[in-house]
Amino acid sequence: MDATAFLTILTTSIATFFAMCNPFANTPIFMSMTAGDDADTKKAVARRATIFAFAIAVVMAAAGKLIGELFGVTLPAFKLGAGILVFVIGYHMVMGKPHGAQSASPEEIDKSREKELEKAISPLGTPILAGGGVISTAIAFSATDGIEGLAAVIVGFGIIMVMTYFFFLSGDAIENKIGAAGLVALTKIMGLILLTIGVQIFLGGMDGVLNEYIPTIPALLSGSGS
After folding, report:
1. Which DSSP category does 125 fall into?
2. CA distance 21 to 110
3. Whose CA is closest to 47, among 131, 121, 133?
4. pLDDT of residue 214
5. Could you check whether the bond before residue 218 is cis, i.e. omega within 30 degrees of 0?
6. How far apart are CA 62 and CA 95, in angstroms?
7. What pTM was estimated for this model as a whole?
8. Are 119 and 33 in contact, with CB atoms under 8 Å apart?
9. Distance (Å, whole) CA 64 – CA 198
10. Computed from CA positions of residues 86, 87, 92, 93, in that sequence, does the dihedral angle turn out positive or negative?
11. What is the CA radius of gyration of the chain?
């Protein structure tokens, strides 16, 4: 494994997952869902949610290539789709709109309150922490960069989940420090970062399309004319 290349991929992984999971923005969601719970229950919910989200991201990253082969999905096509999805998530964050990877529906939240520890799996674990954007990005990393990409997902997303865990437990102090307006501003900044990352992933997919499919068009046309 090339250490320099891995560090580059890891840096991108951490930046991407931090912007996508946005511990600052998700902390108020955790606080509202655990309002009235004692400290031990809050710790248990935060721990289970982050561990479950981490497990989903790693499993999907490891099995992404197999899934692609099973359903006949090529890497350029997957990167195009992942780029669009990440771009849309970033756009919604910039515009102040909720998205499936960041917030759950009111119905999901109401149901989850009935059983305190179940909320750690859904909606906190997924789709809030490990939603479609996180899963597709994790697969894109491992499919593009192989072992280095998978390692970057494990280390990078693991770091973000550890951060998220402590953010959840420090929710009251964080909100008092930066206020509601600060949370909104930070979410928009994270959204802008995701916009650019989504464009970069999409361009990588376009490059694959141009190199993989465009050169075959003359041969296909000549074959159809014969």
Report:
1. I
2. 22
3. 121
4. 72
5. no
6. 33
7. 0.69
8. yes
9. 19
10. positive
11. 19
